[in-house]
Amino acid sequence: MGGRVTRVFRNFNVESRASREISKEKPTPAPRHRTARLDAMADSPEIKEEVFRKDDRFLTLLKDVYVESRDPPVRVKDGGGEHLPSKQEEKRLTKLGHLEGLDVKKVPKGKISLVEALTLLNNHKLQPQIWTAEKIAAEYSLELKEVNSLLEFFIPFAVQEFPKESKKAITSHKPKKLT
Predict the structure, then answer these.
(1) How far apart are CA 52 and CA 49, in angstroms?
(2) What distance in Å separates the CA atoms of residue 36 and residue 32, rounded to the nearest whole number?
(3) Who is most buried in 9, 91, 112, 117, counting CB within 10 A?
(4) What residues make up the domain containing 121?
């Protein structure tokens, strides 16, 4: 309700107020700052000549300047939460088979790539008698307790298809009528 009232007052006599503002004489602009006047003077040939002229005194001072730069000696901090590798990590080639293009080629010993993890989990799920935790640990250079944790807590997804009869049985359930 309040919006309608304010709209009426706002739109009252809009055309005449707009034409009055348009017909007003334009106000004189504020005086320019003196730096703006210097920009206009920069086009003059005397200023251009002064800018491009070489000053011999400045050139001799510039030739006397010599800068020598040395890096400070590098200091290695002990401890502090950082650990520097004492030797280069041993790496092993991945066992990927037909998924070779999807993953890295070398991983450090004691670690596995994502594709390898999915492969070994799927192999263990399909054939748990063949792919035991001990065989997986030996095959992928892993610790036995880590492999046991991996097999216990990570399970690959399984796709299940429901037969049409079970869908029919589910949808045939009729809600009770209240009488």
Answers:
(1) 5
(2) 6
(3) 112
(4) 91-153
Token representation of residue 80: 């502090």
Number of domains the chain is built from = 1
CA distance 120 to 141: 13
pTM exceeds cut of 0.70: no
For 15, list phi and psi in degrees, rounded to 5.
Answer: -65, -45
- E strands, the chain, are 91-93, 106-108
Looking at this protein, which amino acid is placed at residue 76? V
Helix then strand then coil, % of the chain, to nearest 5: 50, 5, 45
Residue type for position 19: S
Contact 95, 114 (CB under 8 A): no
Is residue 59 assigned to a domain? Answer: no
144/32 Cα distance (integer angstroms): 82
Whether 142 and 104 have beta carbons less than 8 Å apart is answered as no
Is 174 exposed, middle or buried, given 0-12, 13-18 or 19+ CB atoms closer than 10 A? Answer: exposed
